[in-house]
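Fig. S4 source data, part A: sequence.
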Amino acid sequence: MAGNADNGRYVANYVHDNGCAKNSVSLADKSLLVTGVAGFIGSNLANRLLEETDGIKVVGLDNMNDYYDVRLKASRLEELAQYPNFTFVRGDLADKKLIDSLFEEHHFQIVVNLGAQAGVRYSITNPDAYVNSNLIGFYNILEACRHNPVEHLVYASSSSVYGGNKKVPFCTDDKVDNPVSLYAATKKSNELMAHAYSKLYDIPSTGLRFFTVYGPAGRPDMAYFGFTNKLLAGETIKIFNYGNCQRDFTYVDDIVEGILRVMQGAPQRAIGEDGLPIPPYALYNIGGGRPENLLDFVTTLQEELVRAGVLSPDYDFEAHKELVAMQPGDVPVTYADTTALERDFGYRPTTTLREGLRKFAEWYKAYYM
């Protein structure tokens, strides 16, 4: 064990042998910045923080771009607007003056950087968006943390950094030097940048490699959401690599629980023999640890869409499926080794794919139909 649970909240106090030593970070009465707050993960995290944490003040930043339906982002913000301790700022991570002014005004003690341009395939056709948000934007966050010291910087990385690694499950100790998309390269760059700033400026930072996050009110560009839209419209869904792909799907509530626990356990500061900080830096996978075959995933999705009444029981699924070759930037399998997360925080995701897709289908029915 690395800590204990207090009314469902993680309390960091010690760590298992060979783990990363932690400092306990209380969230109560703190000022937090959550970037990408109108996004899928950011909005769910902010909701949990505001709902459960006494005295917390959350400033949420988002540029509200139109990568996908802005109305979905707006509806997430509407839920957060009910909390008096929530402040929304519409702006861009690449705007250094804005980032600096927010840090100077609010004196953030904890920063959770979830703002980034997402999507593997989109990075092939729109690379500028990734450089601006994922590289320049993250640099601005690091610089702000350097000049306005924080207790903990937590940031989103991605399972995409593992690229075409043949060894499974993917472990944070694995070499990740062969990205297969610009998106993956920017996320690996974030990890390297954070490590350098942790070393040079003693910034406690933790990177989280998320594995295929899904759930209600998620991203429409993700397969489960896109498939549902296409099937409802009577269009054909394309299943890549002829169905021979496996994905480690992770339900959004499990991701948020993992983030919350990690936020409360910052890597300890220490000084090395060179007189410089030993980087207070850590990396974790957050994934279900149960890779699902894509064809099985589609079958489960179909069953839950019928159950929820999104599609009729006599829907001809076979007529609306097409097996196609792998797309550029895709990988055949993702599979998270969550040993380190379990060791240091006593946690691993538990929601099954069927449970998660059932909740998505029920939400879709209520929201769209």
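Fig. S4 source data, part B ends here. The chain has one domain: 3-212+251-289+335-349.
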